[in-house]
């Protein structure tokens, strides 16, 4: 399988996603410069975390105008798998590929630490291998406070588009387990078709034993499993 | 061709004084040039002969450091030092201060401190992979200190997080001596191919000088001069002297420069840090024994009408100077273009040893390169042991009242900001990006893996300035020994150090005494522990309204783990595991946190240190670990070790009497709550 990792000016988890795909999962992987406009040779596209365009103006607000986003839109429309992690999630929201918006964390501070998420749906190409319901993963962001209007929220629920919720270790989605004030503890959502995922936690940071945590690997293995099925 | 529209000001006595040059120094300028300097030349001498750039008070003493060793690839004198870590790789690291700017403008001061040290590392051809910082503030009870502390932490986070280099650890102390004079010391480590290390050399006559990065603005002019004098009432008026950071541009600059270097397109490269274009170009020419000619009218500027003086002295951030062979110029410019970074040819390398600055047709400065770099004054400043040092060292342990309520004492100690859990701080830093962080912040040393090898590097920064205040010689030794101890406790072998020497006004003989004694202590410890000094920085004039900080020579140490999987973590593992104390426990509490917090006493002598004994203990520990590793057939070790200086101060003591009996909840409440309570 071939992973394409998009590089915007200011992306900084691009190398980490490449490492996870190439060296941890032993798959093909290639960087895609944001001025590219063709994505046809890839099986899955990762929009990595970081500070695209310095997060100046608003997170993801400038990146959505990069030429590559037109190609991502087409890739997603054709059913290709797209995963946006952290800043990638923010970009997908700004680009309108996922509904809702991000607010600043309620503490108004950047937060980097391990949190727990409850997997709300294993019927997605990104979670089908999640044999455990509660995953430990790190977050690292200042704007992960997900927000959507009531109509959008109920739509998300009806279509089972909420993929991850912040929870405590036992899976309860309490307020104290919510690191950033996100609406209904939402940590990740997918689009209606289920082929575009946005998530704030970083699976690429916890996919190897040496880093003390392999829960994130489940996300990548799910992607591989669903791609194999398609093929 | 452009010409100067405004005339440069006439040189007057007042102008000379405003530039911080003494009468003798000005006479030296006249002697070198054989004439009155131009305005631009005066500015250049002023910044290059400032304490910050010339190390004029410290240079003679820094020579005492041991700087050689089998692992050393590059010692002091370049942008950063380099050591051999095997597998054809080099670890490149350095620490630098940004104290004065951080006091005046905490967020930007700290942010640009991070930006500056990052440039020192990637300038060498290394990809920066870890940051640390060593911070000192006045007590948080004062709102001004809270403002500085919060601003500094956000500034470090704002810059480091954006650029995507993890802040993996560091240390923070709070003490009255840092009221109005915080210390912000930033450490950075990068990895380069051993045969791909670049230097700041302007060699090859006819080669082009290429300016790359942000446009030059009027910010930070005379920043280094500001860092070379004491602070007084009006210091905050100097806010315009503090530069403003743009981590996004720096991120692009890192990628573009690493690309250019990887493709072997540069002859020499250096960042424009303190004293900007002046120091980078003159130092590069100085090292190569060449001359340079620069046309300042070609430098990209943020605003119109900037004088050559301003362009040469600006400390605008995120700028690099590259020396490139003519035929490779186009390819270099194209790489910068890809990253949307300004890159322009502004001059060339010459063979006449002259530093020639033009503005179009006008020559505004023409001086021997050697006069700026090598002819800076060197001062053997007077040294005197402070008269009250004997009083400071006096402590009769019997005079201290004994309070038997150890539970309360422990909880109080745990809750003071210096000892309390620092999660509030390090959770604001991205400490995991680049996926190399094996031991995260919260430990005495961080461990990062080196991708593409089995190896790991352990990193720590350490200094107890109260020990240095009581005895700068012993305090310097202890700082190195503690750093080594922290490294050894991860299972790594200490390799080398960088240092950041923070002191008061060197014109005071007592401060020079502290400085010289500290250097003696550090040097002796480095020799015994076999950890040479490969880079460093001196920050003098840490005085506000005549009050100096405690001597604070911070040590940044790097150690090597042959197998990163065999690292050791510090926390207790299982019930029933034995707790073993290595070393001697003497009756000594001088300079302890206990004395300060419970009895408000900062007197006595720091703990005894015997370097040979220290070395034996550390060696024994590493040897035993290796035996255990072999026995376990190189599997990860289930053991853990604690080796904290001041050792027992937080350890629950339990002879036959139960001295302390506290629940983990009580302890955690005291230990974890300190920062939340203040913000």
Task: Give a quick set of tags describing it.
heterodimer; A: 231 residues; alpha/beta; 9-stranded mixed β-sheet; 26% strand; globular; B: 679 residues; alpha+beta; 6-stranded mixed β-sheet; 20% strand
- Global mean pLDDT of chain B: 90
Biggest sheet details of chain A: 9 strands, mixed
User: What strand line-up does the widest sheet of chain B have?
Assistant: 8-10-7-11-9-12-13
Helix content of chain A: 10-25%
Got a strand count of chain B?
21
Average predicted confidence as pLDDT of chain A: 97
Task: Outline the biggest β-sheet of chain B.
Answer: 7 strands, mixed
Q: pLDDT below 50 for ≥5 consecutive residues: which ranges of chain B? A: 633-655
Helix-and-strand structural type of chain B:
alpha+beta
Helix proportion of residues of chain B, in percent?
25-40%
Strand fraction of chain B equals 15-25%
What's the SSE blueprint?
The complex is a heterodimer of chains A (231) and B (679).
Chain A: E1 2-7, H1 14-24, E2 28-33, E3 44-47, H2 67-77, E4 81-85, H3 87-94, E5 101-103, E6 111-119, E7 134-141, E8 145-147, H4 150-158, E9 162-167, E10 186-190, E11 196-199, H5 217-230
Parallel strand pairs in A: 1-2, 1-3, 3-4, 4-11
Antiparallel strand pairs in A: 5-8, 6-7, 6-9, 9-10, 10-11
Chain B: H1 13-18, H2 23-33, H3 39-48, H4 51-54, H5 59-62, E1 72-74, E2 81-86, E3 89-97, H6 99-104, H7 106-122, E4 127-137, H8 143-163, E5 167-174, E6 183-193, E7 208-213, H9 223-226, H10 247-262, E8 268-271, H11 276-288, E9 291-295, H12 308-313, E10 319-324, H13 329-338, E11 343-350, E12 354-359, E13 362-368, H14 369-373, H15 389-393, H16 406-415, H17 423-426, E14 437-439, E15 446-449, E16 456-462, H18 465-470, H19 472-488, E17 493-502, H20 509-529, E18 533-539, E19 543-544, E20 547-548, E21 552-561, H21 593-599, H22 611-631, H23 664-672
Parallel strand pairs in B: 4-5, 9-12, 17-18
Antiparallel strand pairs in B: 1-2, 2-3, 3-6, 4-6, 7-10, 7-11, 8-10, 9-11, 12-13, 14-15, 15-16, 16-21, 17-21, 19-20
Helix pairs in contact in B: 7-8, 7-10, 8-10, 10-13, 16-23, 19-20, 19-22, 20-22
């Amino acid at each position: 399988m071939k992973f394409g990792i998009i590089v915007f000016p200011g992306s900084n988890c691009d190398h980490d996603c490449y490492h996870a795909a190439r060296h941890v999962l032993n798959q093909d992987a290639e960087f895609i410069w944001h001025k590219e406009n063709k994505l046809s040779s890839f099986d899955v596209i990762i929009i990595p975390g970081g500070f695209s365009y310095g997060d100046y103006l608003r997170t993801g607000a400038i990146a959505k105008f990069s030429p590559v986003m037109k190609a991502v839109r087409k890739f997603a429309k054709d059913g290709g798998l797209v995963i946006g992690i952290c800043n990638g999630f923010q970009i997908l929201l700004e680009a309108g590929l996922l509904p809702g918006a991000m607010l600043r964390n309620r503490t108004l501070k950047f937060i980097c630490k391990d949190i727990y998420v409850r997997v709300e749906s294993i019927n997605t190409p990104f979670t089908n291998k999640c044999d455990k319901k509660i995953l430990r993963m790190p977050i690292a962001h200042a704007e992960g406070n997900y927000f959507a209007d009531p109509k959008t929220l109920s739509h998300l629920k009806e279509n089972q588009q909420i993929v991850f919720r912040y929870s405590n270790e036992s899976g309860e989605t309490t307020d104290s387990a919510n690191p950033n004030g996100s609406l209904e503890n939402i940590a990740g959502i997918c689009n209606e078709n289920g082929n575009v995922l946005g998530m704030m936690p970083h699976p690429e940071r916890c996919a190897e034993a040496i880093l003390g945590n392999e829960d994130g690997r489940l996300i990548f293995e799910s992607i591989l499993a669903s791609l194999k099925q398609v093929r | 061709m452009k010409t100067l529209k405004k005339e440069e000001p006439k040189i007057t006595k007042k102008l000379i004084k405003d530039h911080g040059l003494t009468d003798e120094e000005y006479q030296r300028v006249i002697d070198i040039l054989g004439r009155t300097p131009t305005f631009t030349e005066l500015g250049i001498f002023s910044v290059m002969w400032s304490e910050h750039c010339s190390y004029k008070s410290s240079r003679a003493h820094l020579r005492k450091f041991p700087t050689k060793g089998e692992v050393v690839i590059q010692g002091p004198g370049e942008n950063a030092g380099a050591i051999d870590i095997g597998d054809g790789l080099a670890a490149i690291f350095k620490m630098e201060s940004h104290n004065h700017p951080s006091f005046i403008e905490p967020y930007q001061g700290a942010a640009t401190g991070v930006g500056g040290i990052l440039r020192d590392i990637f300038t060498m051809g290394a990809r920066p992979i870890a940051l640390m910082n060593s911070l000192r503030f006045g007590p948080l009870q004062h709102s001004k200190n809270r403002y500085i502390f919060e601003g500094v932490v956000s500034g470090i986070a704002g810059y480091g997080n954006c650029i995507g280099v993890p802040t993996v650890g560091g240390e923070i102390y709070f003490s009255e001596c840092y009221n109005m004079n915080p210390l912000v010391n930033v450490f950075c480590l990068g990895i380069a191919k051993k045969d791909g290390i670049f230097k700041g050399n302007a060699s090859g006559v006819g080669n082009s000088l290429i300016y790359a990065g942000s446009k030059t603005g009027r910010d930070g002019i005379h920043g280094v001069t500001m860092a070379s004098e004491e602070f007084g009432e009006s210091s905050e008026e100097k806010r315009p002297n503090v530069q403003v950071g743009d981590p996004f541009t720096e991120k692009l600059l890192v990628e573009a420069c690493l690309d250019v270097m990887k493709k072997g397109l540069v002859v020499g490269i250096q960042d424009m840090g303190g004293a900007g274009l002046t120091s980078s170009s003159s130092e590069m020419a100085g090292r190569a024994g060449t001359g340079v000619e620069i046309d300042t009218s070609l430098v990209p500027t943020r605003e119109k009408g900037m004088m050559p003086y301003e362009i040469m002295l600006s400390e605008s951030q995120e700028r690099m100077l590259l020396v490139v062979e003519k035929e490779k110029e186009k390819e270099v410019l194209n790489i910068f273009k890809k990253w949307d970074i300004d890159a322009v040819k502004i001059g060339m390398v010459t063979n006449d040893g002259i530093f020639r600055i033009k503005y179009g047709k006008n020559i505004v400065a023409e001086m021997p390169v050697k006069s700026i770099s090598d002819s800076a004054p060197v001062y053997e400043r007077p040294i005197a042991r402070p008269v009250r040092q004997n009083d400071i060292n006096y402590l009769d342990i019997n005079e201290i009242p004994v309070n038997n309520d150890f539970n309360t004492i422990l909880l109080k100690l745990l809750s003071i900001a210096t000892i309390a859990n620092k999660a509030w701080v390090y959770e604001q830093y991205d400490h995991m990006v680049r996926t190399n962080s094996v031991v995260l912040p919260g430990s005495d040393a961080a461990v990062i893996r080196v991708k593409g090898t089995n190896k790991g590097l352990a990193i720590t920064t350490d200094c107890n300035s109260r020990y240095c205040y009581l005895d700068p010689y012993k305090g310097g030794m202890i700082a190195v020994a503690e750093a080594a101890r922290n490294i050894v406790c991860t299972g790594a072998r200490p390799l080398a150090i960088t240092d950041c020497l923070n002191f008061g006004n060197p014109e005071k003989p007592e401060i020079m005494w502290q400085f010289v004694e500290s250097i003696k202590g550090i040097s002796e410890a480095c020799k015994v522990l076999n950890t040479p000094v490969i880079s460093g920085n001196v920050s003098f004039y840490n005085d506000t309204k005549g009050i100096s900080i405690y001597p604070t020579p911070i040590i940044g140490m790097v150690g090597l783990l042959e197998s990163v999987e065999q690292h050791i973590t510090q926390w207790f593992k299982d019930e029933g595991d034995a707790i073993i104390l290595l070393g001697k426990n003497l009756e000594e509490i001088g300079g302890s946190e206990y004395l300060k917090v419970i009895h408000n006493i900062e007197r006595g002598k720091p703990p005894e240190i015997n370097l040979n004994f220290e070395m034996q203990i550390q060696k024994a520990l590493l040897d035993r670990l290796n035996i255990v590793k072999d026995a376990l057939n190189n599997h990860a070790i289930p053991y853990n070790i604690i080796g904290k200086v001041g050792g027992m101060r937080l350890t629950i003591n339990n002879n036959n009497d139960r001295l302390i009996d506290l629940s983990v909840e009580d302890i955690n409440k005291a230990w974890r709550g300190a920062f939340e309570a203040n913000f």
